[in-house]
Design a protein that fits this description.
Elements lengths: L1 H15 L3 E5 L10 E4 L3 E2 L6 H15 L4 E4 L6 H5 L4 H12 L5 E12 L7 E10 L5 E10 L6 H17 L1
Parallel strand pairs: 2-4, 2-5, 3-5
Antiparallel strand pairs: 1-7, 5-6, 6-7
């Protein structure tokens, strides 16, 4: 009797460990028909270009949830590849880019984790904070989410699930 109960508890813990844990602002609905400007996410990980990867996924997830016009900031100078939105020069260039656009929403954020865990299975682990502001800088929405995937999942798939969990509440 105790063995099946112990096995059930262990299975519940194992499944719970792979869920997406999200904290978001409540009751925020934003316009799908507006122009959405997506900036590179600041990379606070040891994984090169994690912020740029998260930016690309955010752009796709916004479109999938019905955002009509999505524009992404691209740094063609090559400086942003190393610093990924964290250098003062990169941040000023992004502010200038936003000011030159007619966007309604500006999406930015921070990647806290973007890696495969060490060990036999090497599960993907992703942690992201997104914020949506108006062009003047007024915070409209903020959310943070994290997920550890299964051994056979890709890092991109796990990142997409995390970002989807953050975007869905404002567009669905």
């Amino acid at each position: 009797m105790k063995l099946p109960l112990l096995a059930l508890c262990a299975a519940a813990l194992a499944l719970g460990g792979c869920g997406t844990h999200a904290r978001t602002a409540q009751d925020v609905r934003l316009e799908r028909d507006a122009t959405w400007l997506v900036l590179p996410l600041v990379n606070r990980t040891s994984t090169p270009q994690a912020g740029l990867r998260a930016q690309a996924i955010t752009e796709a997830v916004l479109a999938r949830h019905g955002a009509a016009r999505v524009e992404s900031y691209r740094d063609d100078s090559g400086d942003g590849v190393l610093f990924e939105a964290s250098s003062p020069e990169s941040r000023q260039a992004m502010r200038d880019w936003v000011a030159a656009r007619q966007g309604r929403y500006v999406v930015s954020g921070v990647v806290h984790e973007w890696r495969y865990k060490t060990g036999v299975d090497g599960e993907p682990a992703v942690g992201v904070m997104l914020e949506i502001r108006d062009p003047a800088g007024q915070l409209l929405y903020t959310g943070t989410a994290a997920r550890a995937g299964w051994a056979r999942q890709s890092l991109s798939e796990t990142g997409q699930r995390v970002i989807d969990k953050l975007v869905a509440p404002v567009l669905d």
